[in-house]
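[[Encoded backbone]]
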Amino acid sequence: LLLLAFLVLATFSAQSQIRFGIKGGLSSTNISTNSLNVLGQGGISRLKVAVEHANYGVHFGLVTQIGIGNFILQPELNFNSNSTNFKVDNLSGTGAASGIFKEKYKNLDIPVLLGWRLGPLRLNAGPEGHLFLNSTSDLFKFSDYKQNFQNLTIGFIGGVGLDIWNLMLDVRYEGNFSKYGNHINFGGNSYQFDKSPSRLLFSVGWMFGKR
């Protein structure tokens, strides 16, 4: 994705307008899933794990806008932090007690957006890569719990923006091709929920230079 952005930048730099900016905002994650049934020895149900609540996340990062007429190429580099509360019912009565367990995630999101200006409005969409950075979890209270995150996952993102002078306002929808919770591992067995997560992102940015 970065290589694509650099190639376009090198090809059109002589006839395009390039601006840089900063941004930050909040995200709301939508997760509609069934519960996970974690099995113990003999195939007996040991734990029931369900999503209790997906908390609001925060993000901030850098923006590059390459404008050619009304056409825009907009690669970004965003640090994203969010968390999820899991409700765990311990059906076996051994190990950690039932309760609410929180996991926190940190990722580097790299969207490459193609857009079109309609006056002060921007319409944009494109692919997005998610680089996993780190995670902390209360689920480690279960001695056989492990995390198996993929280093890179791919999704898509699109939305509408409003430019007021150098101020940039955006509302975006983000989808992913990976199942939610596919990093969860108990006793050497991997689990995942049956839905892919989606997010709504609200951000405010400031672009340097004149358009």
Observations:
- Helices lie at 2-12.
- The chain has one helix and 13 strands.
- The longest helix spans residues 2-12.
- The mean pLDDT is 88.
